[in-house]
Write a structure and sequence with these properties.
Blueprint lengths: L1 H4 L6 E6 L4 H4 L6 E9 L2 H17 L18 H11 L12 H9 L4 H10 L1 H13 L13 E9 L2 E5 L7 E5 L5 H15 L7 E7 L1
Antiparallel strand pairs: 1-6, 2-3, 2-6, 3-4, 4-5
Amino acid sequence: QFLKQLGIHPDWQFVDVYGMEPELLSMVPRPVCAVLLLFPITEKYETFRTEEEERIKTMGQDVKSSVYFMKQTINNACGTIGLIHAIANNRDKMNFETNSSLKKFLEDSLSMTPEERAKYLETYEAIRVTHESSAHEGQTEAPSIDEKVDLHFVALVNVGGHLYELDGRKPFPVNHGETSDDSFLEDAIEVCKKFMERDPEELRFNAIALSAA
């Protein structure tokens, strides 16, 4: 529904990944061009994130210039940013309606820095309004205001044969190594498993795949 509102033809759809075992992954329609992971931000995760950032800054990494990455400056917009990351890095595969608000956003922001893209999204009414209306239609019950639940979305995409984790809270994309169109779902799920292994007592993990309809 959200994709349709943003002016994307229904050749691609978001589908639930019901589990990480091979037989459950085999139920996901192929090809898959992106995976969104919803996970809890816990102390363990924040410690890991800081260490990872320092390690990458020290050792460096290869990030292709064609990776579309944006920062997150709007609270609770991680789902929207994850979706933009998923679509933007697969825009050559998408069929957009002529008047698609997302197509215009991507065209306008292609030459911007990750920070400029975040600022542009803050003022970009069409996507924000769509995000807010779809958030109210969602089936997941919103946590009560007293709960200190901090759930966050990241996007996993294949750009030029490398698997990137795109998270607007991080200063840069994270390159998780080589992948291919055929192995992408399995490779992305391996990255998801690492998130789960870092927080073994946590159950609030959920993955959805952007699959061919």
